[in-house]
Amino acid sequence: MTDQVVTRFAPSPTGFLHIGGARTALFNWLYARGRGGKFLLRIEDTDRDRSTPEATQAILDGMAWLGLDHDGDVVSQAARSERHAEVARQLLAEGKAYKCFSTQDEIQAFRDTARAEGRSTLFQSPWRDVDPASHPDAPYVVRIKAPRDGQTVIGDKVQGDVTIGNDQLDDMVLLRSDGSPVYMLAVVVDDHDMGVTHVIRGDDHLNNAARQMLIYEAMGWDVPIWAHIPLIHGPDGKKLSKRHGALGVDEYQKMGYPAAGMRNYLARLGWSHGDDEFFTDAQAREWFDLDGIGKSPARFDFKKLENLSGQHIAAAQDAALLQELQDYLVATGRPALPEAKAALVESAMYCLKERAKTFPELIEKAEFALAERPIVPDEKAAKALDDVSRGILGELTPHLQSASWTRNALETVATEFSETRGMKFGKLAGPLRAALAGRAATPSVFDMMLVLGRDETVARITDAAS
Question: How many structural domains is the chain composed of?
């Protein structure tokens, strides 16, 4: 094997990028990126009836959103079918595979008899050792010659050594009767030709490893290092499915989770590094190792995802957060913010991103910057704008017009104004929120004033007071 680590993600393009697939891709990406290796992408599109260009695009879009860049071109498995068949023919020529002429009816009859006699129903072809000179002129499949005794040991970095008796392995079909290669052959040939050193995938493929090793060994190829990771379960401990909520990565983008929060959460889903919950991409690449993957299924927890997402929003650079907010708007079918509004929102990020767990929450807090005059207060905010409050706002306006536009100066003006009227500032805050944002729940009134600037602030308060 080469010294360089090469991992791959090999989804089937029959639908969206599933959350389990996204985690598999992330684990492969982290393992390769953390070791200066290569991370390759192969689309396993051999099922021509179910594979669609739209599904392939959905997978590419999901990976792009998650920031999982791959090396080299995307490999199409279907485009390599001639190469797969070539390997089967080589094994046939070397006597490591054989032509089997048994019909489906004959195979079924074998199994029925075996079942009735209490024997293994694993099909044993009568053609395994027949001299090719005696072969009929009839349709056939090509089967590999599996060992009939002994054991196959899968040395797995997550599951440990898994031993399978060779009497449990059948003579797997390599080529169908129409000459087309089967998936199990295609996977092995592709992984070998792509130089894959580590196969990190779901543990639903664990039994496949023993059968795939037959091909590696028959061809004299290096067997990759296996790491079969447990599946993801819902909060109820059952396999993750639609009843638990969103399954596709694109749905999480549309729900407004930041990509960094999603990466962090998916990395923690079945893998751990001590007690660390929140970490950066750089830390994940440095820390990620196969030893940290647990053997038990991970449970998806929306509360933990929200918590981590909030921490990543708070830690993000303002410009990067604005760009991702724009991407979120476009992904949900809304127009991106125009330049002037985008600049205003970016200047407000310092007071928006604390305690916002998703982009919808961020937009809700940014409503004051997005709104246009005249501000129409919602029902709750309108209650704060009675005649007395309007009068107080009217009196406050000249004080703001002459104030120095810094936070300290604005706080001083508001506090002194309140005290001279024998009221606490809290009494003034409600009407100010209604005037500036039209909402009862907003960032601090002083933050809103600083972001909006003197002219817009005074104009909004004047509107509300009249």
Answer: 3
3-state secondary structure of 142: strand
Closest CA to 432 of 399, 461, 402, 403: 461
CA distance 413 to 394: 14
Alpha-carbon separation of residue 408 from 208, 402, 403, 420 (angstroms): 67, 14, 10, 18
Q: What is the pLDDT of residues 149-170, one digit of tens each?
A: 999 999 999 999 999 999 999 9
CATH number of the domain residue 146 falls in: 3.40.50.620
Full-model pTM: 0.93
Examine the domain organization and report whether 94 and 169 are in the same domain: yes
Active site residues: 242
pLDDT per position as a tens digit, 173-206: 999 999 999 999 999 999 999 999 999 999 999 9
Among candidate residues 201, 194, 182, 183, the one with its CA nearest the CA of residue 221: 194
- CATH (domain of 416): 1.10.10.350
106 burial level (CB within 10 Å; 0-12, 13-18, 19+):
middle
DSSP 336: P
Range of the domain at 191: 80-229
Strand partners, 450: none
HSE-up of residue 443 (Cα within 13 Å, Cβ side): 26
